[in-house]
């Protein structure tokens, strides 16, 4: 780890940074970091605003522009300022009409914005819950922006799986990426089924996704009223919830000779895959996905000079040190996972405003480290094996 020189950081006040975020500069390069919040940056939860500000502080002086796209009428960041939402090759009818339904409609609205923005403008698309720790600019210039590099896509991936996958909370590519273009065509086809869908319910069963294992494994849900939902149904729910990721896996595993597309070969050659558990979920791994424990540990005050470190303080310190030195980022989890785990670090930071930035706590230290320190290198790339295709045939057949 090393301190970032002050000249490479935007150290102005939060108010000054918020002004810039609310008044984005014209598009002049591919170095854009895209976020989405339906009601706009000003209405984001404070802890996610701090996430986005940290991206701004870290990367704007290296030529990046942070953009929080929204759907607010009259907003300079409304998606209509960047893309034609009535174009059926870009968005499904439900998006144009703003008729998406279901408990996760806003998450799926974000999913539908992601690939069209990257295909048109390039850059990075990240979830507002994503805390960037590692050196984005260096990795970008070593891979995607380097004409001598074979890598065209950056994301996270679970290691040891029997099929290809990526994590849709962090995606990066240049415009017109071949993988993302096919992914978005397939995603639009799922939304167009049955005359046009307004939610992702049941998309897991689409024949267009044949051969891709459902997500979820052995997760179960016990609802507040005691209703138990077993692993099979949870896998279906989770796959519908992360349908964008399921689509990506389908395209990554597809061989379509008529389209000159070999997904497995593309992934091996062109996907810079960061291992997702250490790379973006380390706090969860170190606390066994116990959101309350993670929150309690990071809320502890650090020992004052002369005080002996307690066992809990030691664990909290080790978590922060591990994240800052080993993780490329950390994804604060929300959404469907709250039905499984009930609380997460992200949900508790949301429900306890300001708890993520209390001076003298481990959470405050983590925030400071993310904004002011950098790692000495970039994360390694998971070595992907050439796997058999999950489907041989046409993308939309």
Automatic annotation (TrEMBL):
Gene3D superfamilies: 3.90.550.20
Domain of life, per lineage: Eukaryota
GO molecular function: glycosyltransferase activity
Name of this chain's protein: Capsular polysaccharide synthesis
Naturally occurring in which organism (per UniProt): Penicillium roqueforti (strain FM164)
């Amino acid at each position: 780890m090393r301190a970032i020189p002050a000249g490479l950081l935007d150290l102005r006040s939060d108010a000054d940074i918020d002004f810039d975020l609310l008044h984005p500069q014209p598009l002049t390069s591919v170095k854009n970091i895209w976020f989405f919040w339906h009601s706009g940056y000003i209405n984001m939860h404070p802890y996610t605003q701090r996430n986005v500000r940290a991206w701004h502080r870290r990367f704007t002086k290296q030529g990046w522009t942070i953009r929080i796209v929204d759907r607010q009428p009259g907003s300079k960041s409304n998606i209509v300022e960047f893309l034609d939402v009535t174009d059926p090759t870009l968005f499904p009818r439900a998006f144009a009409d703003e008729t998406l339904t279901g408990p996760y409609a806003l998450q799926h609205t974000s999913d539908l914005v992601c690939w069209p923005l990257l295909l048109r403008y390039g850059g990075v698309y990240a979830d507002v819950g994503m805390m960037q720790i590692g050196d984005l600019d260096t990795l970008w210039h070593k891979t995607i922006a380097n004409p001598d590099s074979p890598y065209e896509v950056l994301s996270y991936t679970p290691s040891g799986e029997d099929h290809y996958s990526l994590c849709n909370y962090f995606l990066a590519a240049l415009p017109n990426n071949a993988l993302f273009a096919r992914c978005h065509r397939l995603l639009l086809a799922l939304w167009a089924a049955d005359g046009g869908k307004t939610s992702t319910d049941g998309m897991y069963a689409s024949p267009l996704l044949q051969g891709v294992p459902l997500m979820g494994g052995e997760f179960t849900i016990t609802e507040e009223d005691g209703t138990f939902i077993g692993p099979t149904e949870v896998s279906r729910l989770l796959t519908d919830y992360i349908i964008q990721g399921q689509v990506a896996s389908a395209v990554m595993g597809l061989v379509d000779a008529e389209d000159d597309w070999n997904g497995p070969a593309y992934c091996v050659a062109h996907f810079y895959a960061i291992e997702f558990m250490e790379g973006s979920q380390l706090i969860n791994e170190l606390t066994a996905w116990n959101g309350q424990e993670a929150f309690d540990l990071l809320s502890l005050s650090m020992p004052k000079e002369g005080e002996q470190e307690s066992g809990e303080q030691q664990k909290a310190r080790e978590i922060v040190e591990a994240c800052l030195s080993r993780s490329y980022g950390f994804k604060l989890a929300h959404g469907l996972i709250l039905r499984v785990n009930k609380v997460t670090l992200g949900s508790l930071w949301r429900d306890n405003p300001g708890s993520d930035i209390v001076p003298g706590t481990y959470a405050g230290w983590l925030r400071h480290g993310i904004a002011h320190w950098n790692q000495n290198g970039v994360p390694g790339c998971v070595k992907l094996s050439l796997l058999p295709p999950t489907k041989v045939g046409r993308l939309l057949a």
